[in-house]
Design a protein that fits this description.
With 388 residues, this protein is of the alpha/beta class. Helices cover 48% and strands 12% of the residues. Helix 7 (185-203) packs across helix 9 and helix 7 runs parallel beside helix 11.
Protein backbone atom coordinates (compact mmCIF):
# COMPACT_ATOMS: atom_id res chain seq x y z
CA UNK A 1 0.00 0.00 0.00
CA UNK A 2 1.30 3.48 -0.87
CA UNK A 3 1.89 6.13 1.79
CA UNK A 4 -1.01 8.53 2.16
CA UNK A 5 -2.61 11.28 4.23
CA UNK A 6 -6.37 11.27 4.77
CA UNK A 7 -7.88 14.65 5.60
CA UNK A 8 -11.57 15.39 5.26
CA UNK A 9 -13.05 18.06 7.55
CA UNK A 10 -16.55 18.18 5.97
CA UNK A 11 -19.48 18.04 8.39
CA UNK A 12 -21.66 15.69 6.35
CA UNK A 13 -25.30 16.06 7.43
CA UNK A 14 -27.35 13.25 5.89
CA UNK A 15 -31.04 12.41 5.87
CA UNK A 16 -34.60 13.67 5.68
CA UNK A 17 -35.34 17.20 6.84
CA UNK A 18 -31.75 18.16 7.55
CA UNK A 19 -32.07 21.52 5.78
CA UNK A 20 -33.72 22.77 8.96
CA UNK A 21 -30.25 22.76 10.59
CA UNK A 22 -28.88 25.46 8.28
CA UNK A 23 -29.21 28.27 10.79
CA UNK A 24 -26.92 26.41 13.18
CA UNK A 25 -24.41 25.46 10.49
CA UNK A 26 -23.95 28.86 8.83
CA UNK A 27 -21.79 31.18 10.98
CA UNK A 28 -23.78 33.66 13.04
CA UNK A 29 -24.08 37.14 11.55
CA UNK A 30 -22.68 35.93 8.20
CA UNK A 31 -23.61 37.75 5.03
CA UNK A 32 -24.44 34.91 2.67
CA UNK A 33 -24.20 34.54 -1.09
CA UNK A 34 -26.83 31.96 -2.04
CA UNK A 35 -25.55 30.39 -5.27
CA UNK A 36 -27.59 28.09 -7.47
CA UNK A 37 -28.13 26.98 -11.04
CA UNK A 38 -30.99 27.23 -13.48
CA UNK A 39 -33.86 27.61 -11.07
CA UNK A 40 -35.02 24.04 -10.39
CA UNK A 41 -34.68 24.75 -6.67
CA UNK A 42 -37.71 27.04 -6.97
CA UNK A 43 -39.82 24.24 -8.48
CA UNK A 44 -38.87 21.52 -6.02
CA UNK A 45 -39.24 23.61 -2.87
CA UNK A 46 -35.56 23.62 -1.94
CA UNK A 47 -35.19 27.40 -2.30
CA UNK A 48 -38.09 28.01 0.05
CA UNK A 49 -36.73 25.50 2.56
CA UNK A 50 -33.27 27.07 2.48
CA UNK A 51 -34.40 30.68 2.77
CA UNK A 52 -36.87 29.79 5.53
CA UNK A 53 -34.12 28.05 7.47
CA UNK A 54 -31.90 31.13 7.05
CA UNK A 55 -34.52 33.65 8.13
CA UNK A 56 -32.71 36.51 9.83
CA UNK A 57 -29.52 36.17 7.78
CA UNK A 58 -28.61 38.77 5.16
CA UNK A 59 -28.74 36.91 1.85
CA UNK A 60 -27.65 37.93 -1.64
CA UNK A 61 -28.74 35.55 -4.39
CA UNK A 62 -26.73 34.53 -7.43
CA UNK A 63 -28.36 32.19 -9.93
CA UNK A 64 -27.52 30.91 -13.37
CA UNK A 65 -24.46 28.73 -12.67
CA UNK A 66 -24.43 26.38 -15.64
CA UNK A 67 -23.96 22.64 -15.90
CA UNK A 68 -20.19 22.56 -16.49
CA UNK A 69 -19.87 25.94 -14.73
CA UNK A 70 -18.38 28.72 -16.79
CA UNK A 71 -15.43 30.78 -15.62
CA UNK A 72 -17.04 33.86 -17.12
CA UNK A 73 -20.24 33.40 -15.10
CA UNK A 74 -18.42 32.64 -11.88
CA UNK A 75 -16.34 35.80 -12.13
CA UNK A 76 -19.59 37.79 -11.92
CA UNK A 77 -20.22 36.20 -8.53
CA UNK A 78 -16.65 37.00 -7.50
CA UNK A 79 -17.31 40.67 -8.27
CA UNK A 80 -20.51 40.65 -6.19
CA UNK A 81 -18.73 39.16 -3.18
CA UNK A 82 -15.98 41.76 -3.39
CA UNK A 83 -18.38 44.66 -3.80
CA UNK A 84 -20.83 43.61 -1.08
CA UNK A 85 -18.24 42.20 1.33
CA UNK A 86 -19.92 38.81 1.57
CA UNK A 87 -18.21 36.42 3.97
CA UNK A 88 -19.96 33.07 3.43
CA UNK A 89 -21.23 31.21 0.36
CA UNK A 90 -23.98 28.59 0.29
CA UNK A 91 -24.02 26.37 -2.78
CA UNK A 92 -27.49 24.93 -3.39
CA UNK A 93 -27.45 22.48 -6.26
CA UNK A 94 -25.53 19.62 -7.78
CA UNK A 95 -21.87 19.14 -8.53
CA UNK A 96 -21.68 21.96 -11.05
CA UNK A 97 -22.96 24.55 -8.59
CA UNK A 98 -20.69 23.25 -5.83
CA UNK A 99 -17.68 23.17 -8.18
CA UNK A 100 -18.48 26.71 -9.25
CA UNK A 101 -18.63 27.87 -5.64
CA UNK A 102 -15.23 26.30 -4.94
CA UNK A 103 -13.79 28.40 -7.75
CA UNK A 104 -15.58 31.52 -6.49
CA UNK A 105 -14.24 30.86 -2.99
CA UNK A 106 -10.69 30.64 -4.31
CA UNK A 107 -10.89 33.53 -6.76
CA UNK A 108 -12.21 36.29 -4.47
CA UNK A 109 -8.85 36.94 -2.79
CA UNK A 110 -6.63 35.64 -5.58
CA UNK A 111 -3.95 38.09 -6.63
CA UNK A 112 -3.59 37.95 -10.40
CA UNK A 113 -5.48 36.59 -13.40
CA UNK A 114 -8.13 34.26 -11.95
CA UNK A 115 -7.94 32.09 -15.08
CA UNK A 116 -4.48 31.03 -13.87
CA UNK A 117 -6.19 29.18 -11.03
CA UNK A 118 -7.38 26.75 -13.69
CA UNK A 119 -4.61 26.91 -16.26
CA UNK A 120 -1.87 26.46 -13.67
CA UNK A 121 -3.85 24.04 -11.48
CA UNK A 122 -3.15 26.10 -8.38
CA UNK A 123 -3.78 24.28 -5.09
CA UNK A 124 -5.32 26.29 -2.25
CA UNK A 125 -4.16 25.23 1.20
CA UNK A 126 -4.55 28.39 3.30
CA UNK A 127 -8.13 28.68 4.58
CA UNK A 128 -7.58 32.35 5.42
CA UNK A 129 -7.24 33.09 1.70
CA UNK A 130 -10.58 31.63 0.60
CA UNK A 131 -14.22 32.41 1.38
CA UNK A 132 -15.80 29.68 3.54
CA UNK A 133 -18.78 27.88 2.05
CA UNK A 134 -21.31 25.14 2.70
CA UNK A 135 -23.52 23.11 0.41
CA UNK A 136 -27.06 21.83 0.13
CA UNK A 137 -26.92 18.99 -2.36
CA UNK A 138 -29.79 18.57 -4.82
CA UNK A 139 -28.22 16.26 -7.42
CA UNK A 140 -25.96 13.38 -6.36
CA UNK A 141 -23.21 12.42 -8.80
CA UNK A 142 -19.87 14.09 -8.36
CA UNK A 143 -19.02 13.76 -4.67
CA UNK A 144 -18.17 17.47 -4.72
CA UNK A 145 -20.14 17.89 -1.49
CA UNK A 146 -17.41 15.99 0.39
CA UNK A 147 -14.20 16.69 -1.50
CA UNK A 148 -11.98 19.66 -2.31
CA UNK A 149 -11.75 19.34 -6.09
CA UNK A 150 -13.65 21.10 -8.86
CA UNK A 151 -13.90 21.34 -12.63
CA UNK A 152 -14.63 24.63 -14.41
CA UNK A 153 -14.99 25.49 -18.11
CA UNK A 154 -13.38 28.52 -19.71
CA UNK A 155 -15.91 29.15 -22.46
CA UNK A 156 -13.73 31.50 -24.48
CA UNK A 157 -11.12 28.81 -25.12
CA UNK A 158 -13.29 25.66 -24.80
CA UNK A 159 -11.17 24.38 -21.92
CA UNK A 160 -12.50 22.28 -19.06
CA UNK A 161 -9.93 22.48 -16.26
CA UNK A 162 -9.52 21.57 -12.60
CA UNK A 163 -8.70 23.25 -9.30
CA UNK A 164 -8.58 22.17 -5.68
CA UNK A 165 -6.61 22.04 -2.46
CA UNK A 166 -7.26 21.31 1.20
CA UNK A 167 -8.68 24.81 1.79
CA UNK A 168 -11.57 24.10 -0.58
CA UNK A 169 -13.49 21.52 1.42
CA UNK A 170 -17.04 22.61 2.28
CA UNK A 171 -17.54 23.52 5.93
CA UNK A 172 -20.67 21.39 5.86
CA UNK A 173 -22.87 19.60 3.36
CA UNK A 174 -26.55 18.89 3.84
CA UNK A 175 -27.57 15.80 1.89
CA UNK A 176 -31.27 14.90 1.90
CA UNK A 177 -31.97 11.92 -0.39
CA UNK A 178 -35.63 12.88 -0.79
CA UNK A 179 -34.70 15.80 -3.09
CA UNK A 180 -33.97 13.41 -5.96
CA UNK A 181 -37.68 12.66 -6.40
CA UNK A 182 -38.07 15.77 -8.55
CA UNK A 183 -35.05 15.11 -10.80
CA UNK A 184 -35.48 14.22 -14.47
CA UNK A 185 -34.70 10.63 -15.38
CA UNK A 186 -31.72 11.70 -17.49
CA UNK A 187 -30.07 13.42 -14.53
CA UNK A 188 -30.55 10.37 -12.34
CA UNK A 189 -29.03 8.16 -15.03
CA UNK A 190 -26.10 10.53 -15.29
CA UNK A 191 -25.62 10.52 -11.52
CA UNK A 192 -25.39 6.75 -11.30
CA UNK A 193 -22.90 6.50 -14.18
CA UNK A 194 -20.83 9.42 -12.92
CA UNK A 195 -20.46 7.79 -9.50
CA UNK A 196 -19.77 4.37 -11.02
CA UNK A 197 -17.02 5.77 -13.22
CA UNK A 198 -15.46 7.70 -10.36
CA UNK A 199 -14.97 4.40 -8.56
CA UNK A 200 -13.61 2.70 -11.67
CA UNK A 201 -11.01 5.43 -12.20
CA UNK A 202 -9.61 4.77 -8.71
CA UNK A 203 -10.05 1.01 -8.71
CA UNK A 204 -9.39 -0.41 -12.16
CA UNK A 205 -5.65 0.00 -12.53
CA UNK A 206 -3.52 -3.05 -11.69
CA UNK A 207 -3.42 -5.54 -8.80
CA UNK A 208 -1.77 -4.21 -5.64
CA UNK A 209 -1.70 -4.96 -1.93
CA UNK A 210 -4.31 -2.44 -0.72
CA UNK A 211 -6.86 -5.17 -0.06
CA UNK A 212 -9.35 -3.15 1.96
CA UNK A 213 -9.39 -0.33 -0.59
CA UNK A 214 -10.35 -2.78 -3.32
CA UNK A 215 -13.18 -4.13 -1.17
CA UNK A 216 -14.41 -0.61 -0.45
CA UNK A 217 -14.48 0.16 -4.18
CA UNK A 218 -16.13 -3.11 -5.11
CA UNK A 219 -18.86 -2.61 -2.51
CA UNK A 220 -19.73 0.79 -3.98
CA UNK A 221 -19.80 -0.64 -7.51
CA UNK A 222 -22.05 -3.52 -6.46
CA UNK A 223 -24.40 -1.16 -4.63
CA UNK A 224 -24.70 1.09 -7.68
CA UNK A 225 -25.39 -1.94 -9.88
CA UNK A 226 -28.08 -3.06 -7.43
CA UNK A 227 -29.90 0.23 -6.92
CA UNK A 228 -29.02 2.22 -10.07
CA UNK A 229 -31.60 0.93 -12.56
CA UNK A 230 -34.35 0.92 -9.93
CA UNK A 231 -33.71 4.35 -8.42
CA UNK A 232 -34.00 5.91 -11.87
CA UNK A 233 -37.52 4.47 -12.19
CA UNK A 234 -38.55 4.98 -8.56
CA UNK A 235 -36.58 7.82 -6.95
CA UNK A 236 -39.19 8.23 -4.21
CA UNK A 237 -38.17 4.88 -2.71
CA UNK A 238 -36.07 6.06 0.24
CA UNK A 239 -34.07 2.85 0.50
CA UNK A 240 -32.97 3.20 -3.12
CA UNK A 241 -32.46 6.96 -2.92
CA UNK A 242 -30.45 6.96 0.29
CA UNK A 243 -28.12 4.18 -0.85
CA UNK A 244 -27.59 5.84 -4.23
CA UNK A 245 -26.83 9.24 -2.72
CA UNK A 246 -24.40 7.86 -0.13
CA UNK A 247 -22.68 5.74 -2.80
CA UNK A 248 -22.19 8.82 -4.97
CA UNK A 249 -20.55 10.65 -2.06
CA UNK A 250 -18.36 7.70 -1.12
CA UNK A 251 -17.25 7.31 -4.73
CA UNK A 252 -15.28 10.55 -4.63
CA UNK A 253 -14.81 11.76 -1.06
CA UNK A 254 -11.17 10.70 -1.09
CA UNK A 255 -11.37 7.49 0.92
CA UNK A 256 -11.06 4.82 -1.77
CA UNK A 257 -8.20 6.66 -3.51
CA UNK A 258 -5.87 6.57 -0.51
CA UNK A 259 -2.91 4.24 -0.75
CA UNK A 260 -3.63 3.08 -4.29
CA UNK A 261 -2.81 4.12 -7.88
CA UNK A 262 -5.52 5.86 -9.88
CA UNK A 263 -6.16 6.48 -13.56
CA UNK A 264 -8.36 9.53 -14.47
CA UNK A 265 -7.55 9.36 -18.20
CA UNK A 266 -11.21 8.69 -18.99
CA UNK A 267 -12.11 11.93 -17.25
CA UNK A 268 -9.38 13.91 -19.00
CA UNK A 269 -10.57 12.76 -22.42
CA UNK A 270 -14.22 13.05 -21.47
CA UNK A 271 -13.77 16.66 -20.36
CA UNK A 272 -12.70 17.53 -23.90
CA UNK A 273 -15.83 15.94 -25.37
CA UNK A 274 -17.95 18.06 -23.06
CA UNK A 275 -16.00 21.20 -23.94
CA UNK A 276 -16.33 20.45 -27.65
CA UNK A 277 -19.89 19.18 -27.95
CA UNK A 278 -21.66 19.92 -24.63
CA UNK A 279 -22.21 16.20 -24.11
CA UNK A 280 -23.29 15.49 -20.53
CA UNK A 281 -20.23 14.70 -18.41
CA UNK A 282 -21.43 11.24 -17.38
CA UNK A 283 -22.20 10.35 -20.98
CA UNK A 284 -18.68 11.21 -22.09
CA UNK A 285 -17.41 8.81 -19.44
CA UNK A 286 -19.68 6.04 -20.71
CA UNK A 287 -18.28 6.61 -24.21
CA UNK A 288 -14.60 6.60 -23.29
CA UNK A 289 -14.25 4.16 -20.37
CA UNK A 290 -14.89 0.85 -22.20
CA UNK A 291 -12.79 1.88 -25.18
CA UNK A 292 -9.92 2.90 -22.95
CA UNK A 293 -10.03 -0.59 -21.44
CA UNK A 294 -9.98 -2.11 -24.91
CA UNK A 295 -6.94 -0.11 -26.00
CA UNK A 296 -5.09 -0.59 -22.69
CA UNK A 297 -6.21 -4.20 -22.27
CA UNK A 298 -2.79 -5.75 -21.75
CA UNK A 299 -1.90 -3.48 -18.84
CA UNK A 300 -5.36 -3.58 -17.24
CA UNK A 301 -6.54 -7.14 -17.87
CA UNK A 302 -5.52 -8.50 -14.48
CA UNK A 303 -7.58 -5.90 -12.63
CA UNK A 304 -10.38 -6.22 -15.20
CA UNK A 305 -10.55 -9.92 -14.42
CA UNK A 306 -10.67 -9.24 -10.67
CA UNK A 307 -13.48 -6.73 -11.29
CA UNK A 308 -15.29 -9.25 -13.47
CA UNK A 309 -15.08 -12.01 -10.88
CA UNK A 310 -15.87 -9.95 -7.77
CA UNK A 311 -18.37 -7.42 -9.08
CA UNK A 312 -20.05 -9.32 -11.93
CA UNK A 313 -19.52 -12.91 -10.74
CA UNK A 314 -18.02 -13.80 -14.12
CA UNK A 315 -16.23 -17.10 -14.57
CA UNK A 316 -14.06 -18.19 -17.48
CA UNK A 317 -11.15 -20.28 -18.64
CA UNK A 318 -8.57 -17.50 -18.62
CA UNK A 319 -7.79 -14.02 -17.35
CA UNK A 320 -8.24 -12.65 -20.88
CA UNK A 321 -11.69 -14.21 -21.23
CA UNK A 322 -12.96 -12.91 -17.88
CA UNK A 323 -11.50 -9.46 -18.55
CA UNK A 324 -13.18 -9.24 -21.97
CA UNK A 325 -16.51 -10.30 -20.50
CA UNK A 326 -16.11 -7.63 -17.79
CA UNK A 327 -15.82 -4.92 -20.45
CA UNK A 328 -18.91 -6.29 -22.21
CA UNK A 329 -20.88 -6.34 -18.94
CA UNK A 330 -19.89 -2.75 -18.25
CA UNK A 331 -21.14 -1.62 -21.66
CA UNK A 332 -24.39 -3.51 -21.12
CA UNK A 333 -24.87 -1.74 -17.79
CA UNK A 334 -24.25 1.63 -19.39
CA UNK A 335 -26.88 0.85 -22.02
CA UNK A 336 -29.31 -0.26 -19.29
CA UNK A 337 -28.77 3.14 -17.67
CA UNK A 338 -29.68 4.94 -20.89
CA UNK A 339 -26.17 5.77 -22.05
CA UNK A 340 -25.28 5.99 -25.75
CA UNK A 341 -21.71 4.80 -25.90
CA UNK A 342 -20.53 6.28 -29.21
CA UNK A 343 -19.58 9.89 -29.89
CA UNK A 344 -21.63 9.86 -33.11
CA UNK A 345 -24.74 9.03 -31.08
CA UNK A 346 -24.21 12.18 -29.01
CA UNK A 347 -22.79 14.77 -31.44
CA UNK A 348 -22.40 15.68 -35.11
CA UNK A 349 -19.40 16.52 -37.31
CA UNK A 350 -17.02 14.51 -35.14
CA UNK A 351 -14.41 13.55 -37.76
CA UNK A 352 -11.66 15.76 -36.31
CA UNK A 353 -12.36 15.04 -32.65
CA UNK A 354 -9.23 12.95 -32.10
CA UNK A 355 -7.03 15.59 -33.76
CA UNK A 356 -8.48 18.31 -31.54
CA UNK A 357 -8.03 16.39 -28.31
CA UNK A 358 -4.50 15.20 -29.08
CA UNK A 359 -3.49 18.72 -30.09
CA UNK A 360 -4.99 20.14 -26.90
CA UNK A 361 -3.07 17.64 -24.77
CA UNK A 362 0.14 18.43 -26.65
CA UNK A 363 -0.35 22.15 -25.98
CA UNK A 364 -0.61 21.40 -22.26
CA UNK A 365 2.50 19.26 -22.31
CA UNK A 366 0.63 16.07 -21.41
CA UNK A 367 2.70 13.17 -22.75
CA UNK A 368 1.24 10.28 -20.81
CA UNK A 369 -1.96 9.70 -18.84
CA UNK A 370 -3.19 6.94 -16.58
CA UNK A 371 -1.87 5.16 -13.51
CA UNK A 372 1.37 4.24 -15.29
CA UNK A 373 1.54 7.35 -17.50
CA UNK A 374 1.54 4.89 -20.41
CA UNK A 375 -1.55 6.22 -22.17
CA UNK A 376 0.44 8.13 -24.74
CA UNK A 377 -0.98 10.66 -27.16
CA UNK A 378 -1.03 7.91 -29.78
CA UNK A 379 -3.13 5.78 -27.41
CA UNK A 380 -5.41 8.75 -26.75
CA UNK A 381 -5.98 9.06 -30.48
CA UNK A 382 -6.79 5.36 -30.75
CA UNK A 383 -9.21 5.49 -27.81
CA UNK A 384 -11.06 8.47 -29.29
CA UNK A 385 -11.17 7.07 -32.81
CA UNK A 386 -12.67 3.73 -31.76
CA UNK A 387 -15.23 5.74 -29.79
CA UNK A 388 -16.61 7.43 -32.92
Amino acid sequence: MNNFELYNPVNYVFGKGQTEKLAKLVPKNAKVLLAYGGGSIFKNGVHEAVTSALKGFEIVEFGGIEPNPRFETLMKAVAIIREQKIDFILAVGGGSVIDGVKFISAAVNFDGDAADILRKRILFTDVSQVIPFGTVLTLPATGSEMNSGAVVTIEATQEKLTLGGSALFPKFSIVDPTVITSLPKRQLQNGVIDAFTHVMEQYLTFPHDALLQDRFAESILKTLLEVGPSVVENPSDYKLASNFVWSATMALNGLIQKGVPSDWATHMIGHELTALYEIDHARTLAIILPNLYKVMFETKKDKLAQYGERVWNISGNSTDEIAQKAIEKTIEFFHTMGMKTKISENAENIEKTADFIVNRFEERGWKGLGEKQNITLEKVREIVEISY
